[in-house]
Amino acid sequence: MKKLGLVFLGVVVMVGLLGGATLAETVEHPTYQGAETAVYAVPDTGTVISNAKVFRLKPGHVQECNDDHVFDIHVRAKIAQWASVNLDFTGWSWYVLKPGTYYADSITASVASNGPLTVTFTGFGDLEFEATSENPGVLQTIETRFGYSLCPQGNDCFPSPPTWQEIQWATGAELEEFGVQIPDSLVLHNGYCLKLWNEIKVEPCNSAGIYTMPAAYISITLENQQHWVEYWDDEAIWEIVYVN
After folding, report:
1. Which residue in 87, 146, 204, 209 has a CA-CA distance of 20 to 30 Å to 153?
2. What DSSP assignment string belongs to 34-60?
3. Contact partners, residue 193, CB within 8 Å, separation at least 6
């Protein structure tokens, strides 16, 4: 599976690969059964592209006789799962004058894929006081919740913001436990808009100062990734992979 990690609150954006298969230390190569040929995009600009491969499969056909010639032609296409993710922001910072419970729109993301996705949350929780020897603080945390709302992507995504009651709210621990499952569908292929909300409850006992959440990130896992994607840049192994 291929995993995209989206890291929030000033932490770097991660992009990683979790392969569903691993290469053995010693690989026996079979007899070469095809030949790779160049692939061009449409409209043709004469530039060979690198996001698709074509292998012409052997054996060919050689026959000399006075009978009719009949031979099989095999054509197939193996499509990898892809995902497109775009975020308008990667974090937020509150400035609060007085105690109270507040919520705000934090991040809007567009997500599209040609296969099912699992969205998981890691490191989300209450804000923690950055204590110092001069300012140890009284109440060490600010109660924090996170909400999300999802809608099909279009020309007017979220034409009107949802109310507080319409947002699905959860604590950081609840987000980590359940995550979000997005099944394969035409809507997902066209794209969803995902809006992330944040709610904080500032108490009178919260001392003046800075409260932060440790490194947190959201991971989007491509659940139907094809095993051969792992070998894409390993030319030597394509002799094995492409015929499977």
Report:
1. 146
2. EEEE--B-SS--SPBPSS--EEEESP-
3. 108, 109, 110, 111, 150, 151, 152, 153, 157, 158
Question: Is residue 114, in this structure, part of any structural domain at all?
Answer: yes
* Structure token pair of residue 237: 């192994």
CA 146 from chain centre, in angstroms, equals 19
Which position has the token pair 């002799």? 239
Size (the chain), residues? 244
Q: What is the span of the domain harbouring residue 107?
A: 84-220
Rg of the chain over all Cα atoms, to the nearest angstrom? 26
Residue 142 lies in a domain: yes
Q: Per the domain annotation, does 211 fall within a domain?
A: yes
Tokens read off for 37: 């040929």
Total domains in the fold of the chain: 1
Tally the C-alpha atoms within 13 A of residue 237's C-alpha that lie toward its C-beta. Answer: 17
What CATH number has the domain bearing residue 152? Answer: 2.60.40
| 1 close to 21: Cβ distance less than 8 angstroms | no
Residue 146 near residue 172 (C-beta atoms within 8 A): yes
**DSSP letters spanning 105-126:** EEEEEEEEESS-EEEEEES---
The helix/strand/coil state of 190 is helix
**Residue 180 DSSP SS3:** strand
Residue 60 is assigned to a structural domain of this protein: no
Q: 68: pLDDT confidence band, cut at 50, 70 and 90?
A: confident
